[in-house]
Specification:
The chain has about 325 residues and is of the alpha/beta class. The chain contains ten helices and eight strands. It has an eight-stranded mixed beta sheet with strand order 1-2-4-3-5-6-7-8, sandwiched between helices. α5 (about 135-150) packs across α6 (about 165-180). The radius of gyration is 18 Å and the shape is globular. The relative contact order is 0.14. Residues about 1-5 have low confidence and may be disordered.
Length: about 325
């Protein structure tokens, strides 16, 4: 009963939010569709995983998409390209899903669109999921994938690492792990709505609680507990917000203004700037968590991916060190 009550309160506040929004009918319809199937703590991990795969499979792939499975160390991955690309320029992508769900297949369309815009070859990785494989399995697999690229002879200056949500947190944690191990950093990183703070202490966890149709603090607390097991929620390789950020490569962070996780991005960027990191943040007005996945119908999703493509092309076209 309490869950149903909270759902209707959320729906009421979201309705007010949508009425005050600019006239974007497609965005409104996407959000209303999400409201019809809200997250509840009663849903099992298997149910939530199934929902993600079903939703991802409905997203059409852009024309000229090609993909091929590959074994990367001891994990599965997939090469994804769309159109003409520079095969020696690599965009390594890490899917989201709260560390417990998500897959290459569910994000293939998004990655293909990034490949087309950035003119690069994308490597999408399938890291191990919690609760079967808690921390540090995901970051270990992410490191394995990056190290595999280096062993294959790729110049780190020709690699950009990226991820969305939990994957965004992993891509930033990877930079910290590389620094810890004195490995070469990639050319840059692109973090999409990264989950940087597994303590859920950002102010927007409360401020945006009534307008975010996707992510709640209760949801994140549950998934953080599954992932962390006995690890501190302030461990930098789990919560990169608490890491020492000096020496990181150029960063692009994209996040929606309607997200409860907005402060995960804003605070990380503020800390990175203090550490003299070359970082830029794009806060997309009214966007919800994971809006890039709707780029086939949502103009701001398409524009955000174009911005990622421009960021990558600009870096790769500069003379490398």
């Amino acid at each position: 009963m309490e869950t149903i009550k909270k759902h209707f309160i959320l729906k009421y506040h979201l309705t007010l939010f949508l009425e005050n929004m600019t006239d974007n009918l497609i965005l409104k319809n996407i959000i209303y569709a999400k409201l019809k199937n809200p997250y509840t703590e009663n849903k099992t991990i298997d149910q939530l995983r199934k929902e993600t795969e079903e939703a991802g499979n409905k997203i059409p792939l852009p024309k000229n998409t090609k993909f091929k499975r590959v074994s990367v160390g001891n994990i599965d991955a997939e090469w994804i390209t769309c159109g003409e690309v520079e095969t020696d320029k690599i965009f390594m992508f890490i899917h989201g899903g709260g560390y417990y769900r998500g897959s290459i297949a569910a994000t293939r369309a998004t990655v293909a669109r990034i490949s087309a815009e950035a003119k690069v070859r994308c490597l999408s990785i399938e890291y191990r999921l919690a609760p079967e494989h808690p921390f540090p399995a995901a970051i270990d697999d992410t490191f394995t994938a990056y190290n595999w690229l280096l062993k294959e002879g790729l110049n780190p200056k020709n690699i950009i690492v990226s991820g969305q949500s939990a994957g965004g947190g992993l891509c930033l944690a990877l930079l910290l792990k590389l620094k810890e191990k004195n490995f070469f950093q990639p050319r840059a990183a692109v973090a999409l709505s990264p989950w940087t703070d597994l303590t859920q202490s950002g102010k927007t966890m409360k401020i945006n609680a009534d307008i975010d149709p996707v992510i709640s603090k209760k949801y994140l607390d549950r998934m953080a507990n599954l992932y962390l097991a006995k690890t501190s929620n302030m461990s930098p390789l789990a919560s990169p917000l608490y890491g020492e950020l000096s020496g990181l490569p150029p960063l692009l962070v994209q996040v929606g203004s309607a997200e409860t996780m907005l402060d995960d991005s804003r605070r990380f960027v503020e800390k990175a700037k203090i550490a003299k990191v070359d970082v830029q943040i794009e806060v997309w007005k009214d966007m919800f968590h994971g809006w890039h996945g709707s780029a086939h119908i949502l103009k701001d999703g398409e524009k955000a991916i174009k911005s990622i493509g421009l960021f990558c092309r600009n870096l790769f076209n500069n003379k490398l060190d």
